Amino acid sequence: MWLNVFGVGSICIVISSILMGITVFAKSQDKKLGNVWGFFCIAVTLFGIGTFMVSIIPASSYSNALFWWQVAYQGAIFSVVFFSHYVINYLKLDKKIFIRSIYFMAFVFSFFNWYKNSEYLIGNMYFVFGQFYCPDWIKYKNPIWLVMYITFFIFLLGYTFWLLLRSYLSSPSADRNQLKYFMLGSVFGWVGAHADFLICFRVPLYPFLHFCVAFYTIIFTYAIVRYQLMAIEVIVRKTLVFAGLLASVFAMLILPTLILQEYIFRSAGAGGKIVGFVISGIIIILTMHRIESFLINVTDKYLFQKKYDYKALLRTFTNEVLTVLELDKLVNLTVDKLSDIIKLNSAAVLLFNEEEQQFEVAAQRNVKDPDVKLIRPDGIVTFMEATQGYLLVKELIARKISIPAAIREIIDKLSAELVIPMVMHEKLIGILSLGKKKSDEDYSEDDLDILLPLARTLAIAISNAQLFDELGKTQADAAQKDKMAVIGTLSAGINHEICNPLGIARGQCEAFLLNLKDGLYKSKTNEELLTKAREIMAKVIHETDRATAITKKLSQFAKPSKGDLEWVNVEKEVDDVLGLVGYELKLEKIEFEKHISTTLPQIFVDRKQLQEVLFNLVRNAGQAIGEKGKVIITAKEERNKVIIDIKDTGSGIPPDKVKELFNPFFTTKEPGKGTGLGLFIVSRVVERNGGRIYLKETKVGEGTTFTLEFPVASKSEVTQAEKS
Amino acid sequence: MTQTKPRIVAIDDEAEFIQMLQEYFEPRGYELHVAVRGARGIELVKEKKPDVLLMDLKMPGIDGDEVWKLLQSMSPPPKVIFVTAYDDGGKTKARLLKMGAYACLDKPISSLKDLEGLINKAFTS
């Protein structure tokens, strides 16, 4: 009585089927369906036990072998029926009569299996490969056996596979993975079972494929862990899997050494056994470390790949995404990083538009209809607001919850599979819509464990960015107010420039009229008077033009910025600003110098805002001087930056005040002369335009230099900005 | 008082303004001397010894108020009427009046007739 390969295969079948059956009975959520599969496992176990016993029964015990073949056949007959029954139920097909009839046939075959020592089913056996008995159909043609073989193992199995294939081809992709692995595993198993029949037809092939019957469970286990096959959810701990793998690898390693001991050193007695152990020990010690690191690698990379990705996801979001304060950039990064890391087909972030009172797509990738708008009665919004819970399409389908057409339409437009609310202080501020994974894998509990908190954190980041955005707008308002205040302080210079021409125009006209009235032109001819009048009118036109020019400049400057970025020539803006502030400087006898390189590249900024900045800085320079001095503007390109220095020969800034310069409300001016928003606002405006401002140098009594830096816009940046 | 009409010196950097004054005052028998810069104006005042000085405040070179400071030592100093478009909320005006300026007028002046009246008033006072 020796253990042969056929017997080892049978042991594997018994063990794997028992484990599989226990798992399914214990874990299956759909008890009724799970039980059918559990019975299938019992049938296969029975087959395994039968064939194992057959494999160890020697040629001398014919009747014993026959009995165990009867047991094996009993298992085999019912395994086919349970398998078909399970598939029909799993596919939710209505075939009650069909199922009843195959059970009926199974009982008929079972009857013949035991009737008259299986005379009509197994018939007679022959001893094969010098190892075990096997039914011999070629020599003893048993009609029932052939009918059983053809109806069950060819037609019934073929029909069942056809049902599976048809369902696989027409099913929504959510279930395809489950079906795919179910089919793969089943084919594997049944091919192995069929191989056992070959020797019955005297095909001299040793039933090595017997192992396949055992190993289909491996494929099923994988599908259960990965795709919740048979609605079984197994939480697999990494350490458990790792330990299991390690143990099985060691088993494989130890097995040959044990065989070596048995065959080679057995004759050497106890001493030989020790040598065998030593060899085993050496092999284990030498290979253990490598096997261990190899397994760690494999489990991490393949089995726990998802968690591998989560680490990257969390790292990317905490380091790169959640810290972004620009709303637009934040939502786009969110969509890009989520799509890239989880490998999504599509993704979108929807934000609430206060004005329109609806959710709109703020950033998206591969969404079917990016113009989709979600208003409250749309259902999704109401659902999210009420439950603050997510919506997983596959889960709804699985729970047979019918999705209203309106929601279905929105899900379709968003190409969504998973919709997660972004909630901040109980308020739904946005919606995160994720499409299917490229791998076609379903979203798992693990995915949700990561994505739900991520959405909550995103809500905080988005709401921060929104506040920052609003702050920017408030600052723009403040800048505008500041500008108007500046214009107020300019009135001396501007008044001078407007009232002078008006005074001249008025005086010229009045003098002519009064002279005429007082008879002072009596000696003059009409011709002479006309010439005089012509001269005066020309002067009046000239002077009114002069006054108009400055009011035009003033009103242009006072207009608020539209917020559009454009190519800006620094020299032209300096000139424009001087056109206004220049009168003031002139009145105070402040000279102005300008050194701007002719090759200075243009910068890409908000033109109005640049004017504001220059205006403030030149005016500050003028005020620092008071009377008589010089303001020098220098602009040059350095290290791909445009650098503008505004230097004055004014009073300078005392060292203790330097630190506070850019603080809001800081001022050295007497009360009423400045609001103090000047440099604070200037610095924010500069930053918004991608630039930087700093105090280059200052010395009390000698003057101050402020420096502005703006990046030289690259072509691609410009086209991108222009597009948006 | 042999003269019935005051002798006037006008200093203003706006040539058109000066020309307009000439246009009005000369036909009416006033002796009017003009300068467009403070420095030349000082010479002119010292030379012509006018009764009334019409002067702009903000000018290239020497400003009106400085011109006047330099003329304070004259005896008798001319009556000064400042005519200016410079407006700093009345502060400079108050300062000039405190310093003894006869009047401060804003440009544009409301009427040449009023200016003439003011000059005569300053002359007779």
Walk me through the topology:
The complex is a heterodimer of chains A (724) and B (125).
Chain A (H helix, E strand, L loop, with lengths): L4 H23 L3 H26 L5 H29 L5 H19 L10 E4 L3 E4 L7 H28 L2 H26 L11 H18 L10 H28 L3 H35 L1 H17 L5 H16 L4 E7 L4 E8 L7 E2 L5 H8 L3 E2 H6 L6 H9 L4 E7 L2 E8 L10 H45 L1 H27 L8 H33 L7 E3 L1 H18 L2 E7 L6 E3 L1 H19 L3 E10 L2 E8 L6 H4 L19 H11 L3 E8 L3 E9 L3 H9 L1
Parallel strand pairs in A: 10-12
Antiparallel strand pairs in A: 1-2, 3-4, 3-8, 4-5, 6-7, 7-8, 9-11, 12-13, 13-15, 14-15
Helix pairs in contact in A: 1-2, 1-7, 2-3, 3-4, 3-5, 5-6, 6-7, 8-9, 9-10, 10-11, 10-15, 11-15, 15-21, 16-17, 16-18, 18-19, 19-21
Chain B lengths: L6 E5 L3 H11 L5 E5 L2 H11 L3 E4 L8 H8 L7 E6 L6 H8 L4 E4 L5 H13 L1
Parallel strand pairs in B: 1-2, 1-3, 3-4, 4-5
Helix pairs in contact in B: 2-3
Kindly list the characteristics that best describe this protein.
heterodimer; A: alpha+beta; Rhopdopsin 7-helix transmembrane proteins; Beta-Lactamase; 6-stranded antiparallel β-sheet; 5-stranded mixed β-sheet; 22 helices; B: 125 residues; alpha/beta; Rossmann fold; 5-stranded parallel β-sheet; 5 strands; 41% helix; globular
Which fold does the CATH topology of chain B refer to?
Rossmann fold
User: Superfamily at the CATH H level of chain B?
Assistant: Response regulator
Quickly name the level 1 CATH class of chain B: Alpha Beta
Helix content of chain B: 40-55%
The number of distinct structural domains of chain B comes to 1
Task: Characterize the structure shown.
The complex is a heterodimer of chains A (724) and B (125). Chain A has helices at residues 5-27, 31-56, 62-90, 96-114, 143-170, 173-198, 210-227, 238-265, 269-303, 305-321, 327-342, 380-387, 393-398, 405-413, 445-489, 491-517, 526-558, 570-587, 607-625, 655-658, 678-688, 715-723, and strands at 125-128, 132-135, 347-353, 358-365, 373-374, 391-392, 418-424, 427-434, 566-568, 590-596, 603-605, 629-638, 641-648, 692-699, 703-711. Chain A has 724 residues and is α+β, with helices and mostly antiparallel strands. Chain A folds into 5 domains: 5-234, Rhopdopsin 7-helix transmembrane proteins, CATH 1.20.1070; 236-303, no CATH class; 308-469, GAF domain (Beta-Lactamase); 490-559; 561-724, 2-Layer Sandwich (Heat Shock Protein 90). In chain A, strands 5-4-3-8-7-6 form a 6-stranded antiparallel sheet, with helices on both faces. Chain A has a 5-stranded mixed sheet with strand order 10-12-13-15-14, covered by helices on one side. In chain A, strands 1-2 form a two-stranded antiparallel ribbon. The mean pLDDT of chain A is 81. Helix content of chain B is 41%, strand content 19%. Chain B contains 5 helices and 5 strands. Chain B has a 5-stranded parallel sheet with strand order 2-1-3-4-5, sandwiched between helices. The model of chain B has no long low-confidence stretch (mean pLDDT 87). The interface between A and B is medium-sized, with 26 and 23 residues.
